[in-house]
Write a structure and sequence with these properties.
Strand content: 15-25%
Distance between the termini: 42 Å
Structural class: alpha/beta
Number of domains: 3
Number of strands: 20
CATH superfamily of the largest domain: FAD/NAD(P)-binding domain
Amino acid sequence: MSAERSVVVVGGGLAGITAALDCADAGASVTLVEVRPRLGGAVYSVEREGLRMDNGQHVFLRCCTAYHALLSRLGSDHLVSIQPRLEIPVLKPGSAPTLLRRGSLPAPLHLAGVLARYPHLSARQRFGVIRAALGLMRLDPDDPRLDEISFGEWLEAHGQDAEAVSVLWDLIALPTLNLPAAEASLALGVFVFRTGLFTSADAGDIGFHTGTLSEIVGVPAERALCDAGVDVRLGWGAERLERGEDGFEVHARGDADGVSAQTAIVAVPHTRAASLLEGLLGGTARGFAELGGSPIVNLHVVFDREVTSHRFAAGVGTPVQYLFDRSAAAGAPTGCQYLAVSLSGAEREMAMSVEELRELYVPALRELLPRARRANVESFLVTREHAATIRAAPGTASLRPAARTAVPGLLLAGSWTDTGGPATLEGAVLSGHAAAAEALRRLALAPPPQPVAWGAAA
């Protein structure tokens, strides 16, 4: 490839896919290299015991407009759906199911009714939650001091006891920040609740993947990239990235020629970026590793009959955080029901064996779902992501780099970079757009129109 007006993208996750498409659409010559034999990065599916299982139960919100736009670009947006109105069924052992459902009033009043009726809080606690929510709305999300303390500390200082945090605040904090409120940065907690719940009434409506992640991201992304003229090289593990005569050179074991390009976008996880870029960025690259990681564990449980009519539900007073009915997408046997249990911030579960997880979670599911008590478990499988996201703890903001580095023409992308929000599907896509815009600027090419960052859909 000629180095003139050329881009090499290292990494084929959401950020790399987005960056490569943007650059190709603007007229650049693009090569994308990915060490895995597939695209999608941390968003993928596997087949085990005849089930097409996603590695994690990724959901998104209506305000995640950049992610939804990418799926439209890939031609797979028909395989996702968004709730017409935010609804979260909440299950608690020994209690009737309750529904957290937004009202029709404008924000933030759209949540007043559901909070006033939420049965897992006392009247005093519900009043305290409303006061804390109003206090959260008054915080300036751009204030750097918010990243110095935990969300849990702030909630405690504003009258939220451990029970209120467990049965309400962590319902949102855990799946979006991949940490409980007690451990998460206040800055990111403010961002999540303001953006997803308090600013726009429909921003927090939940989006689901009705197909498998491979069908929605990996396979159509390869097709879209090839149609756009991108040279996609799968199973190509970048080992060295160096400054070349006209830009950058990326080398892999077994490829004597490597890839040369005027501009390089590194869109790999932060720990991989740290080792790959240490020669070019020195201590800055080594600092990426300080972002740490937070795990997600998914349990895949197949019952021999239907045990719940809920498409998805949250659990309180139980180790079950969220469960999803994935029977149709996974191709579960006729008459069986396949539930995926998603566990965020799952450091304890990462250390547990499959049998230990089964001994804990099958009884927990039976306690939560009465019909499961009469059902047999046909299959119990576990998937683990050791560092699914960065650790969104206090101090994170200062460690997250911008797209542009100190080396001209070297850009960074990934949900771990400074996207303005937590490490999510939306953040990954936004980071890809940001890196591509910088690359195209350097190449004197006009970038395609950019989505509004973390904007609520109309």
